Amino acid sequence: MKREMMGAKIHGAHVTHVNLHYEGSCAIDQNLLDAAGILPYERVHIYNVTTGVRLDTYAIPAKRGSGSIGMNGATARLEHIEDIVIIVTYVQFEDEEIASHRPTVVVVDEHNRPVKTLHHTIRSKS
After folding, report:
1. Is there a contact between 47 and 89 (Cβ–Cβ < 8 Å)?
2. Catalytic residue at 126?
3. If exposure means fewest CB atoms within 10 Å of the residue's CB, which of 12, 53, 69, 99 is most exposed?
4. What is the rounded average pLDDT for all residues in the chain?
5. In the chain, pLDDT over 70 holds for what percent of residues?
6. Which residue among the candidates 25, 68, 100, 124 is catalytic per the annotation?
7. Helices (H), the chain
8. From the candidates 22, 47, 58, 90, which is the catalytic residue?
9. Can you tell me the distance from the alpha carbon of 60 to that of 29, in angstroms, rounded to the nearest whole number?
10. Active-site residue, 25 included
11. For residue 80, which of 53, 114, 111 has the smallest C-alpha distance?
């Protein structure tokens, strides 16, 4: 049986810009993508802590070290500058693969700089 598990999370990011007239996506500072292990064009779920809005789109790289978290296209109607968001990816595993999975959580400050990176362990039911 396949299970869907959190793969990576960027926690507490602040939206820095919105651009309604862009083709779509979420622009994320390349340093944060690297720290979380998120690839360009990978599906991401955006959970807006400020408004409660939840949506999904795909990640694109923003300038390395810029601290950018940009909401483009239709997402720009749902997110606002300075909103606090959580950006999450999910991955699918067979049961026997789960024990070796270590989800990554990158906690950021108010300037979207990483302050802590965690690698969680999945505990078995036994």
Report:
1. no
2. no
3. 99
4. 95
5. 97
6. 25
7. 30-36, 95-98
8. 58
9. 9
10. yes
11. 53
- Give the pLDDT of residue 83: 99
Please write the tens of the pLDDT for every residue from 68-113.
Answer: 999 999 999 999 999 999 999 999 999 888 888 999 999 999 999 9
Which residues 6+ apart lie within 8 Å of 110 measured at CB?
14
CA pair distance 50, 2, nearest whole angstrom: 33
In 1-126, which ranges are E strands? 2-14, 17-19, 25-29, 43-48, 54-62, 69-72, 84-94, 104-108, 114-119
Residue partners of 101: CB distance under 8 A and separation at least 6: 5, 91, 93, 122
Output the six-digit token pair for 108. Answer: 């950021």
What pLDDT shows up at residue 124?
Answer: 60
- Segment 53-62, tens digit of pLDDT: 999 999 999 9
